[in-house]
Specification:
Order of helices and strands: EHHHEEHEEEEEEEEEEEH
Distance between the termini: 43 Å
Number of strands: 14
Largest sheet: 10 strands, antiparallel
CATH topology: Jelly Rolls
CATH superfamily: Jelly Rolls
Number of domains: 1
Radius of gyration: 18 Å
CATH architecture: Sandwich
Strand content: 35-45%
Structural class: alpha+beta
CATH class: Mainly Beta
Shape: globular
Length: about 250
């Protein structure tokens, strides 16, 4: 078993002992992933919003506050390990509310993402302090989710069973148990529940419906890895990532 606590059935996602601690993704690879993702998403009849296609120059000229402030847009991460095909995730934040609204209990309290999990590509074990989310298999293969309950100090409870809702029905698994979601199926993950996931059989289009999303502060990983990785600027960006906004649009 890997030090992430997971060995996907068809091969482990990789061990932290083999990671590149200064791993970066080339911008050319990020551009390629964007093109691949668009084709895959369109194959299921889902179309990204208009701001997805704005160039970096468009973003600099328009400086759309609603997009920048909510951190809407492209998000491609290898968690700083330089092994995207083994340890990584494609995400696009379509809409997102404000933490102030969430605290007040009124306003735009929700968020939506579309994601792609590749076969045996691990999204590593993590939890959220604030965000409650539904993870929905929108099409493709099966999405395998490994689960742990939080202990009293919010660390991983490796002994107790964990109960989650799957399409409105409770489902209980042992600590470290796995559930496999077929297309159309979903799981509800409340704050504190530890989870990791990967695709099995073929790549999976994932929908995420959640409370307000804050990827800067609300991801707690089991291992000391960053949410966003570094980028080697070997070519010009086709579109900006949300992690580019502070640099390009400050």
């Amino acid at each position: 078993m890997s030090r992430f606590g997971i060995d996907p059935p068809s091969g482990p996602a990789g061990d932290l002992a083999r990671r590149n601690p200064h791993g970066t993704m080339k911008r050319s690879r990020i551009n390629e992933i964007m093109r691949e993702a668009d084709r895959f998403i369109r194959s299921f009849g889902y179309i990204l919003p208009p701001f997805a296609w704005w160039s970096p120059q468009d973003m600099v000229r328009l400086r759309p506050r609603g997009v920048i402030g909510a951190r809407l847009g492209w998000d491609i991460t290898d968690y700083g390990q330089g092994k995207f095909d083994e340890l990584g995730l494609f995400l696009f934040t379509v809409r997102n509310g404000r933490l102030a609204d969430l605290s007040a209990g009124r306003g735009m309290l929700y968020a939506e993402k579309i994601m792609i999990s590749r076969v045996n590509q691990l999204s590593p074990m993590h939890r959220h302090n604030l965000k409650a989310e539904d993870i929905v298999n929108r099409g493709g293969g099966r999405l395998v989710v490994e689960l742990f309950a939080p202990a009293g100090d919010r660390s991983i409870d490796r002994a107790s069973p964990v109960t989650v809702a799957c399409d409105g029905r409770p489902r209980t698994v042992a600590a470290g148990g796995r559930i496999a979601l077929s297309p159309g199926e979903s799981v509800t993950l409340l704050p504190g529940v530890w989870h990791a996931f990967w695709a099995e059989g073929s790549d999976v289009l994932i929908g995420e419906v959640s409370t307000v999303n804050d990827d800067l502060t609300d991801n707690v990983f089991e291992q000391p890895i960053p949410r966003f990785g570094g980028i080697e600027e070997d070519v010009r960006p086709m579109h900006l990532l949300v992690s580019d906004y502070d640099k390009w649009l400050a």
